[in-house]
TrEMBL record:
<keyword id="KW-0460">Magnesium</keyword>
<feature type="binding site">
    <location>
        <position position="210"/>
    </location>
    <ligand>
        <name>NADPH</name>
    </ligand>
</feature>
<feature type="binding site">
    <location>
        <position position="152"/>
    </location>
    <ligand>
        <name>1-deoxy-D-xylulose 5-phosphate</name>
    </ligand>
</feature>
<feature type="binding site">
    <location>
        <position position="125"/>
    </location>
    <ligand>
        <name>1-deoxy-D-xylulose 5-phosphate</name>
    </ligand>
</feature>
<feature type="binding site">
    <location>
        <position position="226"/>
    </location>
    <ligand>
        <name>Mn(2+)</name>
    </ligand>
</feature>
<feature type="domain" description="1-deoxy-D-xylulose 5-phosphate reductoisomerase C-terminal">
    <location>
        <begin position="146"/>
        <end position="234"/>
    </location>
</feature>
<feature type="domain" description="DXP reductoisomerase C-terminal">
    <location>
        <begin position="266"/>
        <end position="382"/>
    </location>
</feature>
<comment type="pathway">
    <text>Isoprenoid biosynthesis; isopentenyl diphosphate biosynthesis via DXP pathway; isopentenyl diphosphate from 1-deoxy-D-xylulose 5-phosphate: step 1/6.</text>
</comment>
<feature type="binding site">
    <location>
        <position position="204"/>
    </location>
    <ligand>
        <name>1-deoxy-D-xylulose 5-phosphate</name>
    </ligand>
</feature>
<feature type="binding site">
    <location>
        <position position="10"/>
    </location>
    <ligand>
        <name>NADPH</name>
    </ligand>
</feature>
<dbReference type="InterPro" id="IPR013644">
    <property type="entry name" value="DXP_reductoisomerase_C"/>
</dbReference>
<dbReference type="Pfam" id="PF02670">
    <property type="entry name" value="DXP_reductoisom"/>
</dbReference>
<dbReference type="Pfam" id="PF08436">
    <property type="entry name" value="DXP_redisom_C"/>
</dbReference>
<dbReference type="InterPro" id="IPR036291">
    <property type="entry name" value="NAD(P)-bd_dom_sf"/>
</dbReference>
<feature type="binding site">
    <location>
        <position position="181"/>
    </location>
    <ligand>
        <name>1-deoxy-D-xylulose 5-phosphate</name>
    </ligand>
</feature>
<feature type="binding site">
    <location>
        <position position="223"/>
    </location>
    <ligand>
        <name>1-deoxy-D-xylulose 5-phosphate</name>
    </ligand>
</feature>
<feature type="binding site">
    <location>
        <position position="222"/>
    </location>
    <ligand>
        <name>1-deoxy-D-xylulose 5-phosphate</name>
    </ligand>
</feature>
Length: 393
């Protein structure tokens, strides 16, 4: 039995993870679940999966969850706050942690799982973007196992040799080809992007996801974060990572080798495939995803990304090049700007303007400690909020 904690159980990835787990009750047991505010959903999940512990974002949410669980006669220990999240991620009772909280809020518990030497299924790309080297050092120092859930990185993971040791040259890797759908605005007239609504931005052509990552896909910041994620996961310099637009999202990414071979992972766009892959690795389990029917798809297309249409992609490459805490600045500014856009306080194109200003008006430093990264995150958030307030007036 693998005992599992799901951080962010009520989100898109969390729900898909529980769907896969429910197909294999003989293999997996849920130890703990977390949610920020969706107490009713979490109570339902507790009733179905019977975890020992559940963690929410506030004392008020904890009281409501506790009452709901008691009324159903369920004995679940209910806690709240960051220390409790770190505790369910690092407990001796847990083997595997699904890191599926969205944004910087996921960093502390994901890092706690790394320091406790857990098997980490990493969906929370923002944590790795912020803390890069420090996070990878914690994984190696404490013997944790890091398996990528992001579909592109899971595809790259499956396309690399089993013995891959974060050295592309030694493995004969020429390029990592990160595919991108291009999101909902791939072909929309650029001058109309100023006025798109949150609902239009969240309508992804291929994937059903949470609202923050959906907006990131529309700006292509998601691909920018994924370039940084690939850099850290696979030890690849930016010069070895190419972004390829592939609107069908059937090829989830590829590895190109020096002998001219290209290895790819293909499948229907459904996150249960990478989730099942990482859960069972190195074995294979059924995920609920239909087998790919290439003849019904017919055509696969590829082209180069347009950096002028998607300035966020260029900003992400710039931050990776700058190094240190620059990606933490980028990530924090993006989280604030996306939230402001979702709340209709700024326009869609203001997102890249806010990020560019935060990056160019605030210094970045060497990322010497998690404390230094968190300081930088806090400064960038304050700077971004001030710029948003100016734009919103
Ligand atoms: P979501 O918004 O659907 O779910 C987010 C989860 O995090 C929820 O359970 C929520 O309760 C919890 N959460 C939110 N704010 C929190 C806070 N401040 N503290 C603690 N918990 C909090 O998001 P999602 O689409 O499931 O994405 C989760 C992560 O996975 C993101 O980092 C995203 O980039 C990554 N990811 C998602 C997909 C996808 O298909 N949805 C694909 C690849 C990567
Ligand atoms: Mg992805």
């Amino acid at each position: 039995m693998q005992r599992i904690t799901i951080l962010g159980a009520t989100g898109s990835i969390g729900v898909s993870t529980l769907d896969v787990l429910a197909r294999h009750p003989e293999k997996y047991q849920v130890y703990a679940l977390s949610a920020h505010a969706k107490v009713d959903e979490l109570a339902e999940q507790c009733a179905q999966f019977r975890p020992a512990r559940a963690v929410v974002g506030s004392a008020d949410a904890a009281a409501r969850l506790d009452a709901l669980l008691r009324a159903r006669g369920l004995a679940v220990e209910v806690e709240h706050g960051e220390a409790a999240l770190c505790s369910i991620a690092s407990s001796a009772e847990v083997d595997t942690v699904m890191a599926a909280i969205v944004g910087a809020a996921g960093l502390a518990p994901t890092l706690a799982a790394a320091r406790a030497g857990k098997k980490i299924l990493l969906a929370n790309k923002e944590a790795l973007v912020m803390s890069g080297q420090l996070f990878m050092d914690a994984v190696h120092e404490h013997g944790a196992t890091l398996l990528p859930i992001d579909s592109e990185h899971n595809a790259i993971f499956q396309s690399l040799p089993a013995s891959y040791a974060r050295q592309p040259g030694a493995a004969g890797v020429a390029k990592i080809l990160l595919t991108a759908s291009g999101g909902p605005f791939l072909n929309r007239a650029v001058e109309t992007l100023e006025h798109v609504t949150p609902d239009e931005a969240c309508k992804h052509p291929n994937w059903s996801m949470g609202r923050k990552i959906s907006v990131d896909s529309a700006t292509m910041m998601n691909k920018g974060l994924e370039v940084i994620e690939a850099h850290w996961l696979f030890g690849a310099p930016a010069s070895l990572i190419d972004v390829v637009i592939h609107p069908q999202s059937v090829i989830h990414s590829m590895v190109s080798y020096v002998d001219g071979s290209v290895i790819a992972e293909l499948g229907n766009p459904d996150m249960r495939t990478p989730i099942a892959n990482a859960l069972a690795f190195p074995e294979r389990i059924e995920s609920g995803v239909a087998q790919l029917d290439l003849t019904s798809i017919g055509t696969l297309q590829f082209h180069k990304p347009d950096f002028a249409r998607f300035p966020c992609l260029a900003l992400a490459f710039e931050s990776l090049d700058a190094g240190g805490t620059a990606p933490a600045l980028l990530n924090a500014a993006n989280e604030v700007a996306v939230q402001a856009f979702l709340e209709r306080r700024i326009g869609f194109r203001d997102i890249d303007r806010v990020i560019a200003r935060v990056m160019h008006e605030n210094p970045h430093h060497a990322a010497t400690s998690i404390g230094a990264v968190m300081d930088c995150d806090a400064r960038a958030r304050a700077a971004a909020q001030a710029i948003v307030a100016g734009l919103a007036r």
